[in-house]
Amino acid sequence: MQQGQQGWIAIRDRPLRGELTVPGDKSVSHRAIMLASLADGVSRIEGFLEGEDARATEAIFRQLGVRIETPEPGARIVHGVGLDGLRPSVQPLDCGNAGTAMRLLSGLLAGQRFDSVLVGDASLSKRPMRRVTGPLARMGACIETGPDGRPPLRIHASNGLQSIEFESEVASAQVKSALLLAGLYANGETVVREPQPTRDYSERMLAAFGWPVAFSPGIARLSGGHRLRATDVAVPADFSSAAFFLVAATVVAGSELRLRRVGMNPRRTGLLHVLRAMGADIVEENAGEQGGEPVADLRVRSAPLRGIAVPREHVADMIDEFPALFVAAACAEGTTTVRGAAELRVKESDRIATVATGLRALGIRVDETPDGATIHGGRLRGGVVGSHGDHRVAMAFAVAAQCATDAVTINDVANVATSFPGFDALARGAGFGLEVAES
Ligand SMILES: O=C(O)C1=C[C@@H](OP(=O)(O)O)[C@@H](O)[C@H](O)C1
Ligand SMILES: C=C(OP(=O)(O)O)C(=O)O
Fold first, then answer.
1. Where is the active site (predicted)?
2. CA distance 185 to 182
């Protein structure tokens, strides 16, 4: 372990058992703070993710003059300032590790009558921003990027935005949401079309806050000139956090876990279809609704997996689940192929390369392609892997360790707190062998 880094030593312990609730959805938490801040009136958010990414968004809105109270952990009371009530910040706005914060804010701040600067951590500072600044410029926004279209973003005061019809080349909810948020401030109708449908939380939540928005899979449209009305938001548990437990309980023999009240938005549950096609035993129970989102308890029992070709139509619906899926594929019999997932190369790390490198270190053959990989299932052995500062890669290797023959040391895991604070304790409680090691 490198000096000053936090890591894990993970080892197979016992079958995973019990019931657990994973923390609130990150995508919904970001959006709840944003829309509640721009609304007229006071909104209460329940199930807010107490992770660094969502808290970065919260801190930014405080900096922009919004009063946000924390009556108890996981709850927020947001005193909305109305569409034009934000105040400029002299200090840069720090998005930390959160691509969602930076991209959505670029659209929202492009409509303000003041300048803003958005910065991020080392990982976020390497991620591409032209995908949002390009179309926003067509709407009349003036945004300077760092070299090569990377952060920081200097957003100049708006002189008024014009709506556009935009055909996105990448399937990205962040791009779509940035343009819709800019569209709140634009003249006319903003239309976004996507090559594959992506998560529709912005559209659903805008509608819940009373803004007329028309959307169906792959297209969203709204016009400027309305107001947002304060609304209470109940954030469901994050499917992407549940994913690590779905895979772990599937691959560790003798396991049975129940994950309570997991968000089941169909644009998020691609992994469920793929794991089932590989042979997983996952049952949905108590299906219901929470805050306008479908939720269900997921009961998962261990089952042997076989490799498959992941259908391309599921890729966008499981874009954050590939580190976990790669581990499932490593434990499966036969080969699993992933294609059409080049977006993985521009996440918190290059997730194709970082997961492939770690799996190879644990004895698994992985052949990379520019837009995916072929994973040859086999016997995982112990070893040392790095997360490359990527929360989902760290958690995926904690899962991999539960079916490895020896201990796996996972370096650089502090970033897990961005999306899943308390993962290690929850995982240990379910039966993971997982110790924190500090150098
Ligand atoms: O809109 C969102 O909340 C998100 C969209 C996805 O990113 P892209 O839009 O870049 O695919 C996803 O990877 C990210 O974790 C959250
Ligand atoms: C890609 C992710 O988030 P973001 O883009 O917000 O950094 C993620 O959480 O896996």
1. 320
2. 6
Which residue is listed with tokens 């499917």?
A: 239
Q: Which residues are catalytic?
A: 320
- What is the CB < 6 Å shell around ligand 1? 27, 100, 172-174, 177, 199, 319-320, 343
CATH class of the domain defined by 26-234: alpha beta
CA–CA gap between residue 324 and residue 368 (Å, rounded): 16
The number of the ligand 2 atom at minimal distance from the alpha carbon of 101 is 6
| The domain over range 6-24+236-438 is classified in CATH as 3.65.10.10 | yes
Amino acid at 15: P
Structure letter (DSSP) for residue 253: T
Nearest to 155 by CA among 95, 108, 196: 108
Place 4 in a pLDDT band, splitting at 50, 70 and 90.
low
| Burial track 74-103 (b if 16+ CB lie within 10 A, e otherwise) | bebebbbbebeebeebeebbbbbbbbbbbb
Give the CA distances from residue 342 to residues 98, 314, 347, in Å, rounded to whole numbers and listed in that order: 19, 14, 10
ipTM of the complex: 0.99
Rg (the chain; Cα; Å): 21
Residue whose CA is closest, atom 3 of ligand 1? 27
Residues 153-200 pLDDT 10s: 999 999 999 999 999 999 999 999 999 999 999 999 999 999 999 999
pLDDT in tens, 291-319: 889 999 999 999 999 999 999 999 999 99
Residue 255 marked in a binding site: no
75-85, pLDDT tens digit by residue? 999 999 999 99
381 labelled as ligand-binding? no
Tell me, using a 6 A CB cutoff, whether residue 348 lines ligand 2: yes
DSSP 196: S
Beta-bridge partners for 76: 45
Domain boundary assignment for the chain: 6-24+236-438, 26-234
- 167: helix, coil or strand? strand
Question: What separation in Å is there between the alpha carbon of 358 and the centre of ligand 2?
Answer: 20
Compute CA distances 305 → 51, 277, 309, 328, 416, whole Å. Answer: 32, 9, 13, 8, 27
Q: What is the C-alpha separation between 106 and 26, in angstroms, rounded?
A: 18
How many other CB atoms are found less than 10 A from the CB of residue 439?
10
176 labeled part of a ligand binding site: no
- Spatial contact of 318 and 271, defined as CB atoms under 8 Å apart: yes
